[in-house]
Predict the structure.
Amino acid sequence: MKRFAVLQLSGCAGCEVSLLNADAWVDRFDLVYMPLVASVHDVPEVDTLLISGGVRTDEDLYKLRRAVKRAAQVVAVGTCAISGGVANLGDRDDVRELFLTQAQRHHVPRLLPKTHPVDTYVDVDLYLPGCPPTPELFMAVLDEDADFKASKIVCQECGRKKLRDMRPSHLLGFQQGEVQPDICLVNQGYLCVGTSTRGGCRAPCPRAGHPCVGCRGPSDVFIEKQSGAWFTSIKRVFKGMTDIPEDEIDAALRSPQLALFLFQFSDYSGDDRAPRPKEKVL
Amino acid sequence: MATLTFPLSRIEGHAQVVIEVRGSEVLSAHFQATEFRGFEYLVRGGPAEQMPVIVPRICGVCSTAHHVASVKTLEDVFGVTPPPLAATIRELLLLGQLIQNQATSLFIFTMPDRLGVDSLFDLEDSDLTDLQQTAMTTRALQVRQAGTHLISLAGGQFIHPIKAVIGGVTSGITDEAAAEMREELTQVLPVATQLVDDYWAASLAMAERLGTWGDDQPACYIASVGAEKPNYYGDVLRVMGCGERGMCTIFPAREYAEYLEVEESDYSYAHQTSYRGNVMRANSLARVNLVQRLGTPKADAYLSHFHETFGMPAHAILLFDLARGIELVYALERSLEILGGPLDHEDTDVAYTPRDGEGYGLVEAPRGPLIHHYRVEDGKIAQAEFIIPTVHNLLAIERALRVAAERYVTPAGVNMELENAVGRVVRAFDPCIACATH
């Protein structure tokens, strides 16, 4: 029986909660380490190590380096482990200054100067992006299902209709206006980025009437390119489907807290790290 | 002097307990939250309207509570009142979270203590037969999932939901979807009551074996509940003074700082709060101490039995766990009630105009009253505060740890039962460290 472990670094435990909903593993795989649900305090030898959360403290780094030595396969799970996630917003210089002057404590793990994705420090065999990844995606990883094919983009899974004659002239705030059912959110003036976001989640957000915020990251077409290519594609979509001025879209896309940056901040914050190969991303 | 350090598991997040002893004297018992991400800092400067998407990421276990608290706060800032149907659907969201959370805490976090094992997913060392082992795990996950399905229905997705928006919710719930959910909950309710009965019996046996229900000194109790019944989507906090039943202080979220004293800690990334200097407790025991009844038949039967057996108010900490079981039954019954009514018959949101200002948002999360407080300038967050239920419990946790330490640190040495006791004490409060430090 395949043995697997779940190492949680600095994150929100959402990935773990999602894994708990994938109850198909319970009878088929042997969960040997996951402090959230089991009183085991060290990672034993395992076939697969799932790592969630970013590397925020010296303790995170220590646990990470110890754990990967005992794993045949290392999987970075969730946006924090892969791109830093929401917590990466703390890496803006002004915020970091607040951290260092106000947040540092004594007698507890020390905060590292920056938070980092897992692959800054260790080799990763497979990436499972999402905030969090759905239970179905977790099972695809554990099953090592070669036949599993995620949709290329969220748009393919959303089911809302794109209309030719519905062209908004301004962006709506994320929360404003009444969402019309069954019609594409871009047609309704929302900054939905499902057109270029990696599929596989089955589009719960746009289906429920909320714009896709891009938590699964760029689709295969853009994943190995610079962020500029991703942005250009989104702008092209809005140009084709709406009459919203390009500078309005541009400003919204580049706001530090907005969707793309929110989830992919560390990838596009100036580190000159090689892009992750798409073969390694589920 | 010796320092005993206990790593913690089967709680949300990273924390440890450090107890200092000299001979048989307990010098200190500290609860250390050892993680930190800094949400109060990192949301500054962000568009206020993005908060309902950003702040659920404080915690994947409690994301629903943060999501709803966030829209309530922004509605307070913008001066918007959502329509009644939106409030009802938000209540469903919070009930779904209560089902998920109480089932997780009861069966995944604390049941192993009662069975003498490390994990619900490894029951080989328990006294249960193979069949019982499988049934226990399967049933526990089935109940927990009913909660997550309810959150998905009302919130779009079960972790980091998105359907609550400023001014309401994005859509109602169709009759078909409500009927399907009712069917699932109807099937789960007897499974849940059976598990709660098993849990109750196992808890009695454990308390008998240990000879204690843990720290039973009086404390103040804080919760956001109605005058008689629970209200997870309410507007006021109630505090029952130490030992003074019936004497409640009532105040709205925006006045919290007049009643709650927040202090930084130099050995933990979490702050600690007191009620005007007194130890206070939030979470399930606070709620069952503060309400007269729950308002649903099965849950009220459990509650009467609880009050008759343990008194009112009840103080022993292991009773937090039993109270969670009562609330699990309540949340299932109450959700069935709501899903039986119309949920797709009128508008679910109202228009609003963003404006600058200050606002507060309150929900009763599974761990107690959660308050968000934002100041908005030029449409951006100028300041944000998250007043977290776990933080209200930290003084009470440390007091209970001290009681346990004094019991098991004796002139003959440290009784090895202390390690188990530390786990039981902490889990009774079901702390959430991701939230507490945020």
